[in-house]
């Protein structure tokens, strides 16, 4: 008995294609075979799989954050703010996803983590070169943080480039100066590798924007987009701290840091200080 005859591409009753022998399928487009083969486990525990997948997904989102931040910085530098607003809003929403990723990982209990911890050896999120690029692009500069990336020349070059370049906030202040606001010269031309320090004159420049939003609406919106972004970034860092404390307590981190104590210090970092101070001064 012969099988069913076909005269063209196979389709389902819904009309969707079922034969992708001559064209790209969903899995092909997303390279799913390669992606799903990246979870190379050393044991056989679902907890190890969870740990790997959560961090891999976070790194994928960070890749998109870097793309959006680079494009937003270029738009601010070019006085083209509307597209920058969309990009910064997208980064804030991605950071919400990163916050919720910690919610999933927090389902892992201390005994479950202890069972897979030996597989991590000295690897640690502290070594994420993408996270370091994001921090540098947002202004938290530190020469000390470059050292972990020196052994990998290509990664080091990307992190170093982010360290040497003006941050998103640096470009925002240069924009304010171009618009005639009284931003001091030492804030628009400085050593970009140094972390930003709050400045009273910069606060006054932002106050001029916030006291009359209608007169400089796009700068006012830029300030709010930056504020949203730092707010989202703070939540991401805070959820990191609470999850780590929940799972390992105050043990030292696998990468050699003091663990929760080190992460708590990061919560004190303020990226756009004048935008926070404006809330009090207004």
Short descriptors:
282 residues; mainly alpha; 62% helix
Short recap of the structure:
By secondary structure, this protein is an all-alpha fold.
Please provide a written account of the structure.
α6 (129-137) runs parallel beside α7 (153-164), α10 crosses α13 (273-281) and α11 (217-248) runs antiparallel to α12 (260-266). With 282 residues, the chain is mainly alpha-helical. The chain has helices at 26-30, 32-36, 46-77, 81-105, 110-120, 129-137, 153-164, 168-178, 185-188, 200-211, 217-248, 260-266, 273-281. The protein is built from 13 helices and no strands.
Gross morphology is globular
Proportion of residues in β-strands: under 5%
Number of strands: 0
Helix percentage:
55-70%
Number of helices: 13
Question: What is the end-to-end distance?
Answer: 85 Å
Topology of this structure?
Layout: H1 26-30, H2 32-36, H3 46-77, H4 81-105, H5 110-120, H6 129-137, H7 153-164, H8 168-178, H9 185-188, H10 200-211, H11 217-248, H12 260-266, H13 273-281
